[in-house]
What we know:
This protein is mostly beta strands.
Amino acid sequence: VQLQASGGGLVQAGGSLRLSCVGSRRTSSNNGMGWFRQAPGKEREFVAAISWNGSITSYADSVKGRFTISRDNAKSTVYLQMNDLKPEDTADYFCGQNRWAVAGSDPLRYAYWGRGTLVTVSS
């Protein structure tokens, strides 16, 4: 399983970005997917997750109401729409495939990770 995240960049505070995570042909549509982020000097933290069929989503409190996770299983792609970005959202963003079908926030339950895509929000 290979995951490739893209869509990061430099944006001003209040702006928007949409991240994409494309999976290889072996990426399972039966697994939950999630986005995590890691800022310099900090641990990786949960951002958002989605269940295998998209019916259940979960978010970190810090991004609720601003970020939206979605998926298109036909395209093996998970998206993270990020609106009203803040400087504290600056981080490397990683997508992961959960071992299970759920929208989980525990990184230990994720079996596969893609490379990060850098998001920088200027004030």
